[in-house]
Amino acid sequence: MSKMLNESIETIGVALRNGKTTSAALVDEAIENHARRGAKLDAYKSRNPDQFRAEALAADAVFAAEIDLGPLQGIPVSVKDLYGVSGYRTCAGTPAALPDKWETEGPVVKSLRRSLAPISGKTHTVEFAFGGVGTNAHWGTPRNPWDAKAHRVPGGSSAGAGVSLWEGSALLALGSDTAGSVRVPASFTGTVGVKTSFGRWSVDGVVPLSPSLDTTGVLARTVSDAIIAFAVIDPLTDLPGAALLAAFGDVDASDIHIGVCDHFFEECDAGVAEGVEEAIDSLAAAGARVSSIDLPEAAEADEIFLQGGLAAPEFAAFINGEMLDRKATLDPNVAARFDSMEAITAVDYLARRNKLQHLSATLEDRMADVDVVVGPTVPITPPVLDAVADLEGYRTHNMGALRNTRTANMLNLSAVTIPVALDKAGMPVGFQIMAPLDEDERALAVALAFERVLGTARQRMGTPPLCKD
Q1: How confident is the model at residue 3 (pLDDT cuts 50, 70, 90)?
Q2: Is 157 a catalytic residue?
Q3: Helix or strand holding residue 144 (H, E)
Q4: H-helix or E-strand spanning residue 41
Q5: Model-level pTM?
C-alpha cells in the first residue's frame, strides 16, 4: 500500500482531484495504519470502519460528478469525544454514553460534513475535559508515541487527538481548549495545535467544561495543514484553503517582531527551555526581531487559576445540575477537587471575572509593541503513567502541564503551538505563539513563517519510535 497519508493535505488534495488516489484508498490506508499501531497507541474511544468507508465513497462519488466541496473533501479527520457526531455515542470520557442530545452535530462538525471529510472515529478525552495530563480512569490513557519503553501520557484533555495523527489514521484532529486542552497534547505529541479566539468557533454540539473559557480548535501535523483546516472551519474566513495558505505565505520571518517573556521559561524540565531558545536563535538569524517583554498579567492570572479560576465553579455547576447522575462515578482525580470547587462563592466568582477582564485589557495594550509573544508551550516533560497514578503526582504534573497554556484562555488570546525540539528525555517540545484576541490569522501566519525556517516535526525531530514501520 502506498504511503499517501504521509503527504501534506495540499498534496493529497491534488492527487484526489487528478485521479492519482481516492478517498476510499486514503481510508483503507488509515484503517491499515490503525490495525498496525492502534492496539499499542489506543487513540480512539470509538470507531466505525464501515461508516468511515461509506463517507469516503460518498466523497469519491462527488469528485466523480466533478463537484468540489473544498480542500477537506475526502480527507480523514478524527474528532474528540466531546463533540456530537452522527452515528457515534458521546461519552465525554465518562463510563457510559450521555443522553441523545449530545450526539447532535454542531457547526464545527457540520463544516466537516459539508466538505465530505470522512470521520475516522472519536478520540479519547479526559473525563468532561477536566485535566491537562490526558489520563482517563474509565477508558485508559492513550500512549505517547515518542517513548518506546515507557507509557508516557499524551497530554489532555484532547488525549487521543495528537496520537491519532501519528498513528496515521487521520490527517486532522478536532479538539477543544479551556486551559490548554489542544495545545498540551499537541506539544506532548509533537504536533501543531490551534487554540482559536474565544467565541470565534462555535462550541454548540460540544459537551461544556467552562462556558466562559471553552474554545474549539484543531491539531495537525504541520502548520500548512492547520491553515487549510482553519479556512474550512472558520466562519469569518472567505478565502479557500490554498488562497489563505498563499496569503499567509507572504509573511516572512524578517517581518516579525517577537516578544520573549521570561515567565514562560520558568520551571522548565531539562531541554525544554533550551529547545525553544535554540528555535528563537534560528528565527533571529533568519531576520526576526526579538525583544524581551514583561507580562505581569500572566502571573496575576495564574494566581486566579490556582484558586480554581472560572472553570472549576462552572464545571461544578454543570455536574450538580445536568450531570448530577454522573457525579458518583467521576474520575478520582476530579472528584477529589470537587469540595473545593463547590465552595467557591458567587462573590468570588464574579470578582475573578472582573479581575480577568481588567488584566486582559491591560495585557492587550502591553502586547501592542510586538507581533506575538512566545515561549515553551508546556514546561514539563510528558510524565510516565506511574508518575500520575496517585493524587499528589497527578496534581503536580497537571498544574505543570497547564502552566503556560492557561494564560491564553484566562486572558483572551489566540495561540498556536508548533513542535521545535526533543528535550533531554527525547520527548517533544512545543513552541507557543500567542497573539491578541481575534488575531487568529496573525498567529497562524507567524506560525507558518516560523515553520518554514525551523522545519516541520518530521524534518526537525523525525518520526516517533512507536510509529516507525
Answers
A1: confident
A2: yes
A3: none
A4: helix 23-41
A5: 0.97
